Amino acid sequence: MAQRTAQAVGADRCSINLWREGHLAPVMFQFADGHADPDLWAKFKAMGPYTMEEVPAHAEAIRTRQPVTISDAAADPLIPAYWVETFGVRLALVVPLVHQNEVIGTLNLDQAAGPYTWRQEQIDLAMTIAGQAALAVENARLYRQATERAEKLAALGALTRASESLEATEVSVLNPSSSR
After folding, report:
1. Which of 3, 61, 110, 156 has a CB 3.0–4.6 Å from the CB of 30, allowing a cystine?
2. Could you tell me if 62 and 44 are in contact, meaning their C-beta atoms sit under 8 angstroms apart?
3. pLDDT digits (tens, 9 = 90+) for 38-56
4. What is the pTM of this model?
């Protein structure tokens, strides 16, 4: 999804961060051309989870529930200098992932070449994709919850059956005539 999003919007790469317990946790990072960079992925994962204060562009997207465009990351205080240095970010588009009016994360698109101005069509497409991504994330969360609940119910059922079997054994041991 991240790779196709980067391709569709015209970015070099796309990352997805989920809002968890007051922090943004990086969960996915893909280049548009599909190549892998394990060292860069390790640096990306090592950053998080991070607070909103650490990345003001994400904080702004979450606060306003609107996309944040960065045309020149090196000159914009919304992108931390270490992101520019570590990831080579020159421009960025940060879009909130919103489900039922609740922000559940961010979609970050960036390019290593810049400065550049994001076109409205790119921003609109990123917002549409972010809406679908938020729905997919929420569906995955609900599926995980349902699976966990089913596993707990199955364990409880097995425990109940074992308890009933044990009670029947105890009754027949204590009262041998009841088993005939």
Report:
1. 3
2. no
3. 998 888 888 778 887 888 9
4. 0.78
